[in-house]
Design goal:
The longest helix has 22 residues. The strands form 3 sheets. Strands 5-6-7-8-9 form a 5-stranded antiparallel beta sheet. It folds into 3 domains: 80 residues, no CATH class; 99 residues, no CATH class; 104 residues, Rossmann fold. Helices cover 27% and strands 21% of the residues. By secondary structure, the chain is α+β, with helices and mostly antiparallel strands. The protein is built from 8 helices and 14 strands. The chain binds zinc ion.
Length: 295
């Protein structure tokens, strides 16, 4: 009977240790998604990692240290100061190779006409909801065929379409798939359209990135990312042989104005949409596009 208090003591010690770990891992400043993000980083045991802060976005202020049992993170920026630890439950089998291209201590240089892709943008395959969303709006074929660079933003819960110009990423636009925040979010401040191209010299102007992807098997989809034609769009579109403007039905007046402007440089026609391109079946959409471009 003499060993009962000892057992009681050791059981309580384990419970107490668990409690302490729970308290120390429940970091007060870090957002909920951060722990999973830290665990997914490609860091060797006992290794260190330095990058832009995924929370405040400040360059090269975010540090992660792996002590062999768990990972500790910290942002050095005074206005941010997120910090925390993963706790010892880190399962290495979940560690992904997605970030293997990112080298610690080597920030990507930022220039005025490029957009530095945050390391919270991960492969679409990392999130099932993101992949299902991309399939549902008929953008998946464009993604698989390399006509669009689509990612998932771990931090904001958005499907992100990378906006490129002459092969360089200049901006990104994200669609919320968790119902939080605005439906669409523009990450950078470029005036470039989002383009999903099959290399054809016939462009079709649409409102959003998913619609541009959905038609890119037959034409070059050019998304205004809104309903306004900006100077940047105008300039870009002047390189095409033929343009169709296919805005949603409620924006037909705007579409007609656009046709008038674009017509000055390139033969341009209106494509009337009874339904959203994203809601058509592949056959319906192909038939609609072909009926215009073959004319
Ligand atoms: Zn920070």
């Amino acid at each position: 009977m003499g060993n009962i208090p000892c057992q009681w003591l050791s059981t309580n010690k384990i419970q107490l240790t668990r409690l302490v770990i729970q308290i120390t891992t429940a970091d007060m400043k870090s957002p909920n998604w951060l722990k999973g993000y830290i665990e997914s980083l490609d860091i060797q045991p006992m290794g260190r990692y330095r990058s832009d802060c995924p929370v405040c976005g400040k360059p090269n202020t975010f540090s992660v240290t792996d002590d062999g049992l768990q990972r500790l993170w910290y942002c050095f920026h005074a206005d941010c100061n997120v910090s925390g630890r993963t706790g010892v439950t880190l399962s290495r089998q979940h560690a992904s190779r997605v970030f293997s291209g990112l080298q610690a201590d080597t920030p990507v240089p930022r220039t005025s006409n490029t957009y530095e892709v945050p390391n919270t943008f991960v492969s679409l395959s990392r999130n099932l909801d993101a992949e299902l969303y991309v399939r549902s709006v008929h953008a998946y074929d464009a993604y698989i065929a390399g006509r669009a660079d689509i990612r998932y933003d771990f931090r904001t819960g958005r499907v992100v379409y990378l906006v490129k110009h002459e092969g360089k990423v200049v901006d990104a636009v994200g669609r919320s798939i968790n119902g939080k925040g605005a439906k669409w979010y523009r990450y950078g401040n470029s005036t470039c359209p989002f383009i999903s191209s099959n290399g054809k010299r016939v462009a079709c102007v649409v409102e959003d990135a998913a619609s541009a992807c959905s038609i890119s098997n037959l034409v070059t989809g050019v998304a205004l990312l809104g309903t306004n034609l900006l100077d940047g769009h105008n300039e870009y579109l002047s390189n095409y042989q033929k343009i169709f403007v296919a805005l949603d039905k409620d924006a037909t007046d705007k579409a007609l104005d656009m046709v008038k402007i674009l017509c000055r440089k390139v033969p341009t026609r209106l494509m009337v949409l009874d339904r959203d391109l994203k809601n058509m079946t592949n056959e319906e959409r192909d038939e609609l596009i072909r009926s215009h471009i073959d004319r």
